[in-house]
Amino acid sequence: MPLPIRRLVPALALSCILSAGATACGGSSAVKGAAAYIVAPTPSPTTPAEWQKFARARFAANAGLAAGAADRWIVKPWKEGGFKEGVRGRKAALAQAGRAGTFAYNRLRAVQRNARGDPRLAKALAPLTTGLDGLKNLPSRLRNGDESAMRSINDIIAKVKGAGSSAGARIRIRVPSAAQLASG
Hints:
Blueprint lengths: L4 H20 L4 H9 L10 H4 L3 H25 L10 H26 L3 H7 L3 H5 L4 H6 L3 H20 L11 H6 L1
Helix pairs in contact: 4-5, 4-9
Keywords: Signal
């Protein structure tokens, strides 16, 4: 009984592939010799300082964004009296200040990570770590209208800017967009 060509061709192709694969996997000395010259890269231990490229530039950008958010949505409305009881739009201003506080806290944590990448920045920012850690509950304090939170964020931003300038990182205040602010 003759087999149809439709079944014969795939069977023949499959058998050729399998036989070629079996002979290629043999114990050829050329393959073993070539494998001796291939050196796999070994992972090298890296320090956190090596993880950050352009640490000063990232530090300046993150500090500028934190300062811009704090200045635009926390400090200015506070100085203008936008957080006082009875003022129209107070709840919206406090909610916006809470979002800005979350954003500023996030960027200040990034500033701390960036400072580890540059020895001068790390040395300049070291005294501020307790103050930065104290901002953990800043957004809830801002939403509740706590005036000491307004002062503390303003003081921390000023100290971070001073530390950055003493380490050679020029910080320009950049107001984040609404999308950046919403993303945190």
